[in-house]
Amino acid sequence: MSAVDFFANKGNQESVLEEISVFGDAELKAAFVRLFNPPAAADPYLTGSAAITESEIAQMQAAPDNDVQQEIVRHSSGEAVRCLIARFRLSLAGERALLQRKDKSLLEFYFSRYALYEDAQELLVRTAAKKQERYEILLAYIARHQLCAEALAEAVRRRLQTILEAYLKRYPLGSRVLFFLGLGSSTAEDRKKIDFLLPLLHRPQDKLMLALEIREHFRLAKLKEYAFCRDVSALLRDLPADAAVKIDLRLTPKEECALINSGNRQTFWLYGYGCSLSEEGERALIDRNDKKMFSGYVDRQALSDAGLRYLISEGREELFKTYVRRRRLNREMRAFLHCYGSSQMTEFYRSLGCFWPY
Question: Is the pTM above the cut of 0.85?
Fold first, then answer.
């Protein structure tokens, strides 16, 4: 009887192994191990001894794991790697291996489909500071994709001027970059970063963000070289209508008026989330008579009594209706409306069912 027949007649594997152990038949035990516990086949992609082919990639139902991706990218042909990229986005490990391969055409093929992971972007920036061929690869990357804030801050720290010039002509700076620059630790180091970055900025919103960041650091703001950051009215007036700059500090009344008169609603609303307007700012908002800008602000902030008096006395009926649909007047303002408001204003307020007049 062959070993296979013997095992087939004996039932499950556990009972067979127990019987072999009792009778001590070394030959049968060896046959059992060979039949039911074959040695694990070595993965050829982990040894580097065999490269995967395009046809094998085409049969894959899911992306291979990190180790296998690295070996495919390192050892397979360019066409096989292209086939893999066309089917799956690489993992971070796969992207690192692709960057190490230094094949510009293959990298451009990858960039045409995917953005790099943030860690891979930082790696590319760090190596670009040391190797010319990586410089060209980084230029090819930013021709298609924005850099993450950490990678862009790293480019500033490493003084990659050509990269930054090309990048800032194409993309906005972004507020998070300034956070990762880490201003405030050393005045001398901060000045080096600012003096390098400032001439590269061409967009008003980029200059505005840097000016506001400098203003938050007293030691920097008091330097005469950075006097421009103490009054950013001109930068606010020049903001493009589609720019959205998050302003985390209180502007002066003059700057608030400049922001309102720029007509940039997105930036104004972002400012209104955290700061209520000064009396001058409220007057500028009412005088602008932009119903959409006004309604976006009063959704977040109430007007002061001085602002309401100005709104009523100026007879801005549409803005008044917009305001009282969202907020009720206090007793003093109801009395002011009763005495100085137009008949249309008073009738509209009564129609809302509000307590009248006191």
Answer: no
